[in-house]
Amino acid sequence: MLPHFGCMSEATRRPPAVVVDGLAKTFTLPTEQVHTLKERALHPFRRSKHERLEALRDVSFAVEPGEFFGIVGRNGSGKSTLLKCLAGIYRADRGRIFINGRLSTFIELGVGFNPDLAARDNVTINGVMMGLTPREARDRFDHVIEFAELEDFVDMKLKNYSSGMQVRLAFSVAIQVDADVLLLDEVLAVGDAAFAQKCYDVFYEMRDAGRTVLLVTHDMGAVTRFCNRAMLLERGKIIDFGDPDEVARSYLELNFGYGHDVDPGAAQNEEPRERTGDGRAEITDAWFEDQSGRRIDTLVQSEPATFRMQAAFRDAVSNPVLSVLFEDAERHPSFDVPFAPGRIYATPVVAHRGAGMKVIDRRKRFLSAVVIGTHHSGGLVMVPHDVTFERARAEVRG
To answer: Which residues of the chain have pLDDT under 70?
Structure first.
């Protein structure tokens, strides 16, 4: 019995679009290689040493028809190996794969393309490989080129295309095929912002049309925006499965180590930072705490955290002012609003009150932390807001 399926209700049940049952794939990697005939002649009986890499270990899941399914994980977790097994590029060592319907794949840059052929021939060949007739592939050529925005490069050989141009062409071919199941691997990793937005538009259309899509990506924003469910792979095993927001958070925690205690005695910065003040007090420590009072260096977007600082006074100071400035990596300051994902820096300050804020001690960027989250608008902060639309009343004048 396959785990984690979370299938739809029995009343509306249809056969799954994709089923993976106990999939395993292992690679044998040489640890040393013989590169020349001289080495082979001098050591004819030397045996090559190898290591086994378990890329996939007992992976089981099912994807429902019309589901947008996310597959995430760090580099080397087995994501691309899984998709290549699904596409038939790799043969699994163990396990079974069932795909209900025609399959269209966007696996990686250059797969299925002949670099010595022009775009027209490559589009036809790829279309036929994905199940179109030669005539259907030729009829859709103009739509492929128009979407990829390559009208001026139709007769250029693909070996002269940039990586971004190849991605646009490959993705455009993949979405033109009338496939029941699409496998998309890091389609947003290469390309400009305008093409990424076109991909987003296509994703919305696919989701609204009920097409089955398996999306491999490092973009957690895309996972939470488009996916109905998702799973997280680590070292070839499924370690989280289900709600896209929860899986995205698990991925970020895995990358940034959220939840690990920070050593209070550890140095806050590897390099000395700019310091100013009259020296009557010294800022000796600063840190972030979670809600349980643990020191942390990773903050979760929208979850409360506390900034604390410690100062030692050498002289008596009446009513000192303690403050902190938060900045992002671009040195943009922030105030009392939720941080957006990214690295932030804290500059703690001790100053005299009522003396024009004369500084006693100011430690520039004394502390840093990483804010993790799945919602990012491109700014420094994420201000809570509601948006409403109202229809304006037409004014009739006599």
So the answer is: 1-13, 31-35, 38-48, 108-111, 188-192, 257-273, 334-337, 354-357, 374-398
Q: How is residue 260 annotated by DSSP? A: P
Burial class (CB within 10 angstroms; exposed 0-12, middle 13-18, buried 19+) of 57? middle
Vertex 219 angle, CA 100 and 67, to 5°: 25
Tens digit of each residue's pLDDT (9 = 90 or more) over 181-221: 999 887 766 566 777 788 888 888 888 888 899 999 888 88
Contact 244, 229 (CB under 8 A): yes
What is the rounded radius of gyration, in angstroms, for the C-alpha atoms of the chain?
28
Cα–Cα distance measured from residue 222 to residue 244, given in angstroms and rounded to the nearest whole number: 10
Residue recorded with tokens 């006599």: 398
Angle at 44 between CA 42 and CA 45, to 5 degrees: 130
φ, ψ for residue 145 (rounded to 5)? Answer: -65, -40
Paired tokens of 163: 């990586």
Alpha carbon 265 to its chain centroid, in Å, reads 33
Closest Cα partner for 95 from 199, 178, 23, 149?
Answer: 23
Q: Which residue in 117, 79, 112 sits closest to 215, CA to CA?
A: 79
* Backbone conformation region of residue 89, classed left if phi is above 0, alpha if psi is from -120 to 50, else beta: alpha
Q: pLDDT tens digit string along 151-170?
A: 999 989 988 988 888 888 88
Q: Which domains does the chain have, with CATH numbers?
A: 10-256 (3.40.50.300), 275-372 (2.70.50.60)
Distance CA 151, CA 104 (A): 24
Q: What is the DSSP string of 140-201?
A: THHHHHHHHT-GGGTTSBGGGS-HHHHHHHHHHHHHHS--SEEEEESTTSSS-HHHHHHHHH
DSSP E strands in the chain: the ranges are 18-30, 50-63, 68-73, 94-99, 103-106, 181-185, 212-216, 229-234, 237-242, 275-276, 281-289, 295-296, 298-300, 306-313, 321-328, 333-334, 342-351, 359-363, 367-372
Partners of 342 in beta bridges: 371
Asked whether 256 and 372 are in contact (CB, 8 A), the reply is yes
Angle at 8 between CA 5 and CA 13, to 5 degrees: 110
